[in-house]
Design a protein that fits this description.
Blueprint lengths: L1 H9 L10 H13 L5 H19 L14 H12 L5 H6 L1 H4 L3 H35 L3 H6 L2 H49 L2 H4 L16 H33 L15 H27 L1 H42 L7 H7 L33 H8 L52
Helix pairs in contact: 1-3, 1-7, 2-4, 3-4, 7-13, 9-11, 9-12, 13-14
């Protein structure tokens, strides 16, 4: 990554004059012919050439000729012209534009300083990422070896089921109470209907004896008036009783009471289905936990071995980043010195000094791998007290809910699972263990 960014600005485009593969050879010749160039400066230029050669070996090419700022031969000429005192007058004149600090060279050096800043920012970013990686490698080792992804899914299904079951039972309790209240009112209305309709005034048949004249009655007009008064009173009474009966009948007509609202989980049947599902999820979660405990030792050892192997590789990469930092720092020093277009020997000697480039900030902190813990047997599944508390404790007191059905292979009240009876969940399915058939029966 570092080389690619640097290449983008300094490697010449294919076909450009004075650059490319041929320029590397020319650089070597110029470097070898300069006896006045000190060993430290020669080493610096060699590193620069090595950097460019490595970039070219990667097979990438620059996007355009504008990215070719400082070719290897130009850098070598730049250094030689500033430090060789024996070049010919013609050589001095032909290269005077470089020695005098041409605009191209000044501009190229200035931009290369920015390139190095980007490279070193990348080194720091990588360092921080690796340090975070190391911390992640020792994080949650025990939990990763005691809880699988399937186990977490079963746990989530169980815990979600507990919430849904509690909600359903609470709604069921409200619906049950509402039904009981409704039935009480309906019974009262039916009793009122019976009282209103089961009366003699409505049940009696016509009585012909009502028309018989009283003893000694001889006046027909008086007889008619007496009968008219009697029948009028009886008719008024009949109408009143009939109206009371009709009203009482209308009050109960079509009235029913139910505790099962359509589209709402509130009936005993609805809630029992949720209970069956969460019970199955709890059994699957517990059995998966048993399986993880059986493989705990192997899991821990595998993670420890991988950590140790990764640390060895990371340490080698750490050394490489420090080397890159020192190399890029030397180039940054050189490029800063060359921004004027002319570099003196003291500046170059200072740039070549390895000792001045500190890399302590790139020291990684290697966290200690956590000590091996223990894998605790499952404690929350049908039959255990924690399960009963979670599933049953918050339910309405008046509701009758079936007792939990235990999980095959697990002790009813919790504790150490029998090794021969405990089986790992099927690897080809993530479906929870089904509750026994008896789970759908019991008290309602």
């Amino acid at each position: 990554m570092l080389l690619l960014l640097l290449q983008h600005l300094i490697l010449p485009a294919a076909g450009s004059s004075g650059s490319g593969a041929g320029s590397g050879a020319g650089s070597g010749a110029n470097l070898a012919s300069s006896s006045s160039l000190g060993e430290t400066n020669a080493e610096l230029v060699a590193e620069y050439k090595e950097l460019l050669d490595s970039v070219k070996a990667s097979g990438l090419q620059p996007e355009d000729a504008a990215n070719s700022l400082v070719a290897p031969d130009e850098l070598v000429h730049f250094l030689i012209n500033d430090h060789s005192g024996g070049e010919s007058e013609s050589e001095s004149e032909s290269e005077s534009d470089v020695a005098a600090g041409s605009p191209d060279m000044k501009n190229g050096m200035g931009k290369l300083v920015g390139v190095v800043d980007v490279l070193q920012a990348s080194i720091n970013k990588t360092h921080n990422a690796v340090e975070q990686q190391l911390n992640n490698m020792v994080k949650n080792v025990s939990s990763d070896c005691t809880t699988s992804a399937k186990g977490k899914a079963f746990q989530s299904n169980y815990e979600g089921g507990v919430k849904n079951h509690t909600k359903c039972r609470n709604v069921q309790g409200v619906a049950k109470q509402a039904k009981e209240d409704c039935e009480g009112k309906l019974t009262a209305l039916k009793d009122l209907k019976k009282t209103a309709c089961d009366v003699a005034e409505l049940k009696a048949t016509p009585d012909k004896e009502l028309c018989e004249p009283a003893a000694g009655e001889v006046d027909r007009g008086h007889w008619l008036k007496m009968n008219a008064d009697t029948f009028q009173k009886k008719y008024e009474t009949y109408k009143k009783k009939k109206e009371e009966c009709d009203n009482a009948t209308a009050a109960v007509k079509g009235k029913t009471c139910t505790d099962d609202k359509k589209g709402v989980a509130d009936s005993p049947k609805d809630c029992d289905k949720i209970l069956d599902a969460l019970e199955a999820a709890a059994c699957s979660w517990a059995n998966e936990k048993v399986f993880m405990c059986k493989t705990f030792d192997k899991c821990y050892s595998t993670k420890k071995a991988k950590y140790d192997a990764d640390v060895e590789l990371i340490k080698e990469q750490e050394k490489g980043r420090k080397l890159q930092w020192r190399m890029t720092s030397r180039f940054k020093c050189l490029f800063n010195s060359g921004k004027s277009g002319k570099v003196d020997k003291k500046a170059l000697d200072k740039c070549a000094d390895h000792g001045q480039y500190k890399t302590k900030h790139l020291d990684l902190k290697y966290p200690e791998f956590p000590k091996k813990g223990t894998c605790e047997d499952p404690t929350v599944y049908p039959g255990t007290e924690p399960y009963k508390t979670a599933v049953y404790a918050s339910l309405p007191k008046k509701l009758k809910v079936r007792d939990p059905v235990g999980c095959p292979g697990l002790p009813e009240k919790g504790g150490k699972a029998a090794a021969k009876e405990s089986k790992a969940p099927a690897k080809d399915s993530d479906a929870p263990t089904k509750a026994p058939a008896a789970a759908s029966k019991g008290k309602k």
